[in-house]
Amino acid sequence: QVQLVESGGGSVQAGGSLRLSCAVFGLPYIPPCMGWFRQVPGKEREIVARILPHEGTTNYADSVKGRFTISQDNAKNTVYLQMNSLKPEDTAMYYCAASWIQYCGGRSLGRGDYKFWGQGTQVTVSS
Question: What does each C-alpha distance from 100 to 15, 77, 103 come to in angstroms?
Fold first, then answer.
């Protein structure tokens, strides 16, 4: 079974940066569909970024476009989320998720059905 372990969360001031990591266990390669999600209490979970490692394509929610970058390191079996120019509105629990390509949602960023989830890492941005 695929297991995902996030790390790298913390507290920063507005305008600062963080890099989140998602280490993949149980497979010798990064799954073909990887996403970063975030959720705050009382609100629905939202996807902020997606990468299709075998295709080399990335997608971003409008709210983070130009500020966040999702990437991969095949040698480390790890996916990253570089978060720059952070805003207080970015405060949330961030989750890494993975799935097979047929459940990834095609060209629609928010329609994937992710099968594997990490435990989450908290990101707090103060003003």
Answer: 35, 16, 6
